């Protein structure tokens, strides 16, 4: 057991894996004293997706003030912190490196234990912040702009990957489909907004059901072809359908196909794992159609879908996972950025 993990110990967590600069302070690895997220959405919106170089440079600017804001709740500031956790992957390598360099320098200067955390483990553990009664083992769907995976958190803290996407992440597919429909970025909320007024049966898109995997690139291509097949008269100068109802119908159809694939895949993973508890996290978990479908499919089981602020990227979730890892494995001597990290334990 690490000295830093005395009861009431304070941990500073840092998250910079993609397009949110985030810092949080937790007591005992579960009580969130502060959680600050500086979003880069406006920076990337004109590009229709996250631009890695812009993201890394923005982290350099935003990280110090974000950490300072998170530390404002600690009377002694840095002197009151007992350990530092930072996301080590998966993510954009330049972005991860900014957070790791900052965390490692701060920890070394103050002789604090440092722990590198899987971003995916963070998402999984965010469910425990939302519902402290949630116990492992449970099966988690992590669906975001960068990831789509079903994982099993075992009782001993090990994390097993049960299914992963073969190509695009679910959120990425929402973003690409939204671009084809002229709906802007981020695409998930934009699709959801117009899908409400749409009829999914007017422009049906193919449903994918794979065993032990997800695939979203075919669905995105199907949207592209459906738009093209409307003919040049129906499209504006950007190649976007002019008719708002057609856009709504395609958005509704896309959303239904994407949600069905996620819920079917999760159901298969739950059956295979034998887990009796289900968790849905990541930015796509903000989708109401997905939430409703999950609640319906797993009625009778404990289902945890955290509130929005915990579903999207934040540092509080890195703090929970980091505390758990520190407790089980002790601090890391070196933390290196691992953009394709697969071992999430
Ligand atoms: O977890 P997140 O904030 O960041 C990472 O990608 O790690 O997820 C962002 C993704 C974006 O692709 C966004 O379009 C998607 O989550 N998203 C949604 C919704 N809100 C955000 N997708 C579907 N429906 C939503 N309401
Ligand atoms: Zn994420």
Short characterization:
This protein has 11 helices and 11 strands.
- Unreliably modeled segments: none
Q: Percent helix among the residues?
A: 40-55%
The molecules bound to the chains, other than polymers, are: 5'-O-[(R)-(carboxyoxy)(hydroxy)phosphoryl]adenosine, zinc ion
Distance between the termini: 18 Å
**What average pLDDT do the residues reach?**
94
Shape: globular
- Please tell me how large the radius of gyration is: 21 Å
Content-based structural category: alpha/beta
| Quantity of strands, as a count | 11
- Strand share of the residues? 15-25%
Q: Secondary-structure element order, as H and E?
A: EEEHHEHEHEEEHHEHHEHEHH
Major sheet characteristics: 6 strands, mixed
Helix tally equals: 11
Strand order in the largest sheet? 9-8-7-6-10-11
